[in-house]
Amino acid sequence: MPDAGGLEANKKLIEKIINDQRAILAAQVNPDVTKVPQMWALYTEVQKYYDAGLKVPDDVTPLFSDDNVGNLRRLPTPEERARSGGIGIYYHMDMNGGPFSYKWLNSNPLPKIWEQMNLALQYGATRIWIVNCR
Q1: Which candidate, 36, 44, 120, 134, has a CA 20 to 30 Å from the CA of 101?
Q2: CA Rg, the chain, in Å?
Q3: Phi and psi dihedrals of 4, rounded to 5?
Q4: Is the pLDDT at 1 greater than 60, yes or no?
Q5: What mean pLDDT is predicted for residues 36-48?
Q6: 99: preceding bond cis by omega (within 30 degrees)
């Protein structure tokens, strides 16, 4: 069966890019690349590759994102919680871009933010939290 949309080919390309970037970090920052803090943001466009088995080095922190309106799309599995790089969350309190735009004070209530980020805490996604609020 053909690979719909080139998923496998794209996964391999992204893995090569990650390895190439780590080689640059090793050459320019620290030969022990595991000592260089690294994070990989899994926005909607790339999470499908991660979910399909994309290999991300254990010391790199995957940053799971919400669905752009404050609902976490994914929480870490027990195996992911054991990663040396941990797991992080990217959360939108504010969205300015197509196909919609909103300001957090009017559309993302504080109790919902607390609920979603408390889930992240309970599931061990605590290495880094980034909040989008302009």
Answers
A1: 120
A2: 16
A3: -65, 120
A4: no
A5: 91
A6: yes
Instruction: Cite the DSSP H helix spans in 29-71.
Output: 44-51
CA distances from residue 82 to 54, 61, 71, 127 in whole angstroms, order as listed:
17, 11, 24, 12
**Three-class SS of residue 100?**
strand
Is the pLDDT score of 23 beyond 60?
Answer: yes
Q: Given CA atoms 116, 48, 77, 129 in this order, what sign does their dihedral have?
A: negative
| Beta-carbon count within 10 A of 11 CB | 19
| Token pair of 78 as six digits | 């027990």
Contacts of 120 (CB under 8 A, 6+ apart): 72, 75, 89, 126, 129
DSSP state of 128: -
